[in-house]
Specification:
Helices cover 70% and strands 0% of the residues. The longest helix is centred in the middle third of the chain and has 28 residues, at 117-144. It is elongated and about 55 Å long. Helix 5 runs parallel beside helix 8 (117-144) and helix 9 (158-173) crosses helix 10. The protein has helices at residues 2-9, 14-31, 38-45, 49-56, 59-69, 83-91, 96-113, 117-144, 158-173, 179-193. Residues 1-10 have low confidence and may be disordered. It has two domains: 2-68, Tetracycline Repressor, domain 2 (Orthogonal Bundle); 71-193, Tetracycline Repressor, domain 2 (Orthogonal Bundle). By secondary structure, the protein is mostly helical.
Length: 199
C-alpha cells in the first residue's frame, strides 16, 4: 500500500504539490471547510477531480495535508539549549500576520471537526499526534538538562496550555494572538507552571 501511494505521489512535483496546498488553504479561508468541495479545488488548481481523489483520497486528507505543509517545521527540530528559548523560538517562527491568518484558519477547522469525524481523525493522526511527539522531545531535553522535574504535574497539560494561549486571545480579548502576547504568555503562565524560572 505504501509503495502504491509513493508511486502515485511521485507524479506530482513538490512545486506543484505546494501550489495545490496553497490553493486549498486559500479556499478554506474564503468559504470554510464545509463549503469547500473537491470540484472547487480542481477548478482553482486546474486539476482533474479524479487526480485529487487518487492522490489524497478525499477532502479531509487533502485539507490536513495542506495544513501540515503550511507549518514552519517540526517542533523537535528546535533546540536552543533552554526550554524558554525553545518555546520562544516556536512562537516567533511566524510573523504576526501569519499567526493571525493561521489561528483564524484553525478556529474554522476546529468547528468543522465537530461534524466531520473523517476530518477529526485525519487532523489527530497527521497534526496533533506529531506535534505532541515533538513537544515530548523538547520537554525531555529540558528534563535531561534539569530545567523541569520529570514528575511535574503540569507536563501533562503543556499542549493544552499552548493551544489555550492561541484560542482564548481572540475569544476573550477580541484580537488575534501576536508574537509579543504569546511570548509573554509563555513567561507568565507556561514556564512557571513547569517550575522554570524566567528571570
Amino acid at each position: 500500500m505504501t509503495e502504491v501511494a509513493t508511486t502515485r505521489r511521485s507524479r506530482i512535483t513538490p512545486e506543484r504539490e505546494a501550489e495545490l496546498y496553497r490553493a486549498v488553504l486559500d479556499l478554506l479561508r474564503e468559504v470554510g471547510y464545509d463549503a469547500l468541495t473537491m470540484d472547487a479545488v480542481a477548478a482553482r488548481t486546474r486539476s482533474s477531480k479524479a487526480t485529487l481523489y487518487r492522490q489524497w483520497g478525499g477532502k479531509a486528507e487533502l485539507v490536513v495535508k495542506a495544513l501540515r505543509h503550511n507549518k514552519p517545521g517540526p517542533v523537535e527540530d528546535i533546540d536552543t539549549g533552554t526550554l524558554r528559548g525553545d518555546l520562544h523560538t516556536l512562537m516567533t517562527r511566524e510573523d504576526d500576520c501569519a499567526i493571525e491568518q493561521n489561528s483564524a484558519l484553525m478556529r474554522g477547522i476546529a468547528m468543522a471537526m465537530h461534524n466531520n469525524p473523517d476530518l477529526r481523525q485525519a487532523f489527530r493522526a497527521q497534526l496533533v499526534e506529531p506535534e505532541m511527539g515533538g513537544f515530548r522531545q523538547v520537554i525531555q531535553r529540558a528534563i535531561d538538562r534539569g530545567e523541569v522535574a520529570a514528575d511535574c504535574p503540569a507536563l501533562d497539560f503543556l499542549l493544552h496550555m499552548m493551544v489555550g494561549g492561541f484560542a482564548t486571545r481572540a475569544l476573550l480579548d477580541d484580537q488575534p494572538p501576536t508574537q509579543a502576547f504569546l511570548t509573554s504568555y509563555i513567561d507568565a503562565v507556561i514556564l512557571p507552571a513547569l517550575g522554570v524560572r524566567t528571570s
